[in-house]
Hints:
Blueprint: H1 5-56, H2 59-67, H3 80-90, H4 102-115, H5 125-134, H6 141-157, H7 160-168, H8 180-188, H9 197-205, H10 210-213, H11 219-235, H12 241-249, H13 253-258
Amino acid sequence: MRRPAYTNDISQKNRFARAMRSLVKWLLVLTLAALVGICAYFGMRGYDLYLHASQNESVSEMAEGIRSQPGFVELENLPQIYLDAVVSVEDHRFYRHPGFDVLATGRALFNDLKAGAIVEGGSTITQQLAKNEFFTQEQVIERKIAEVFMAFDIERSLSKDDILELYVNSIYFGDGYYGIGPACYGYLGKHACDMNDWESTLLAGTPNAPSVYAPTQDFDLACQRQQQVLNRMVKYDALTQEQANAIVAQTPNALASAV
């Protein structure tokens, strides 16, 4: 008996659907294989870069190099509000992650993809220390991977307080000042231990973009960045809103006379 035409049509549609499902499956397999290959390629390049850097200088040698610099300030001699400000604005989960923050990296990746450009880094304080002391500032994938490997090394070798101490004593504040000690003398004419709350929160925001936020570059922009720092501190419970408002209201006599 001859099959009706509509039965043949259904059979053809089923074969086509099966063929399309098979094609999609293999495309997914090939795409996944390509992604694994790309990750492996950049992972190996990043690991090689990390090995080369770690062979040139150990974590302990890096730490000793920073501590031997003129103007080095021990953590216990820095105002707590300055340290709280740095952690709040740079890496609020600093004391809870192992050197790499998956949540911050995922958020930064999402925001970068949405903007179509690198608008957020997502690096932890430990990663920033690794980048500044062991690698170049070039934005390449393998360097970011090497930075993560080195961050794990740093976390294994040093305490969190040691890492924070090295970080604030090595970051660039603009005008040739590396570290919070030289920056305080240069911008405020005082020792870092003598910073008040207004000065502490202002300088905590400077290293994000020293060419923009250094108080001698554009005082208004520096104050706008300070407000961002205070907002983060309130958000992460380092300050109350009332305390933040009181800091903004302080008169920056020392700094105003220097700019």
